[in-house]
Amino acid sequence: MDTTKLIKDLQKVNGNMCLSLSIPTVKAGDIEKNRIRWKNAVSSLKSECEKLDKPFKEIADALNAYADNNDFWAHQELGLVGYFSDSVNEIVKLRHEAVSIADVGETFNLYPLISELQAHSSVYVLCVSKNKTSLHIAQGGILTEIDISDNVVRDYDEAMNFDEDTTSVQHHSVGGGDAIHHGNGATDEDDTVRTRQYLKRVDDGLMEIIQGQSIPLVLACVEEYLPLYKQVTAYKNLSDAIIAGNPDDLNDDKIMEDVNCIMTDLLGQTVKNFLDRFNETASRDLLFDKVSEFRSAIKMHNIDTVLINEARFSQMESEEVNKLTRDIVGAYHNGSKVICITDNESEYAVLGIRRFAMETSATV
């Protein structure tokens, strides 16, 4: 599933009744807990429809059909979100624990997908060995291979063949013109030079595909390759993290397992960078830590970055959760950077940095 594309597609849907519901789920071992959470969410949706005098019966069958599917509930991830309307029936399994939402509106509440996208972000994985090269993108918890065959050398041998005309091996012609080659067997230094040449060939082709992007690039390779690749790459977002080992021996599940660990570390660094910036901002007028201030800044399109603490949602009424998450979606679509975390020790639901100082902050 391409989470970014799904967000864009669902964002276009407008109608008299767009239903959004999300629940945390158990991956395995407790089918009934998942089913009960779903039924409770459906019941909450029904109540919302009744409050708004919206017809619920038309869509009830689609919602209830999932409740009776044992196989469906036996194979879950950590969260589940569903979107339903006259033209949409979309269920997405989430790789992080979802906020509980039961929301009815003229548009969908896309917060669970935005939180999922941010939690897993996106990472390029370049698998490179002497036998092959391949590129994957990990996005929304899914690993997808990208076709690079038109741009990137297939393997070490192909890269070295490109270098035949500029080889450093000395030779001269004698007699009938046959070349006589001089030199000893390959040394470790020779191997390093050739490996660097190979990686440079790989990077040259790769830059035709990803140059200028901000998505981190992680190598899956033997450890000796990473420092050499750092020397030759033109990509500004090469990660220091590595999926170490021969990628020929790695399957997609193993790569994704390691990528998830890397993404967790990247999110931790993102949060640290934000908090450092928040604490070091000299103009306190640029900062906010209240939901009312957050909403005032949204109206002015005046949010640079906002840190959302989902742990505080559990203390709010469901209607307030629906409203706040929709506000966050609005900030996201206005170009604000949204960072979602779960911090049980923090008292703040939101912390943010404005783009410019506001003379007054109206309370909503």
Topology:
Blueprint: H1 3-11, E1 18-24, H2 31-51, H3 57-67, H4 70-74, E2 79-84, E3 89-94, E4 101-105, H5 111-120, E5 122-128, E6 133-139, E7 142-146, H6 156-162, E8 171-174, E9 178-181, H7 188-210, E10 217-221, H8 225-232, E11 238-244, H9 252-280, E12 287-288, H10 291-299, E13 305-309, H11 318-333, E14 337-341, E15 350-353
Parallel strand pairs: 5-10, 10-11, 13-14
Antiparallel strand pairs: 1-2, 1-4, 2-3, 5-6, 6-7, 8-9, 12-15, 13-15
| Rg estimate, integer Å | 26 Å
- How many distinct domains? 3
Oligomer: single chain
User: Which residues form runs of ≥5 with pLDDT under 50?
Assistant: 163-184
Description of the molecule:
By secondary structure, the chain is of the alpha+beta class. The chain folds into three domains: 3-119, Translation, Eukaryotic Peptide Chain Release Factor Subunit 1, Chain A; 121-167 and 183-268, eRF1 domain 2 (Nucleotidyltransferase, domain 5), CATH 3.30.420; 281-353, 60s Ribosomal Protein L30, Chain: A (2-Layer Sandwich). It has eleven helices and 15 strands. The protein has helices at residues 3-11, 31-51, 57-67, 70-74, 111-120, 156-162, 188-210, 225-232, 252-280, 291-299, 318-333, and strands at 18-24, 79-84, 89-94, 101-105, 122-128, 133-139, 142-146, 171-174, 178-181, 217-221, 238-244, 287-288, 305-309, 337-341, 350-353. The chain has a five-stranded mixed beta sheet, sandwiched between helices. It has a four-stranded antiparallel beta sheet with strand order 3-2-1-4, sandwiched between helices. A four-stranded mixed beta sheet has the order 12-15-13-14, with helices on both faces. A hairpin with a 4-residue loop joins β5 and β6. α2 runs antiparallel to α3 and α7 (188-210) packs across α8. The two termini are 37 Å apart.
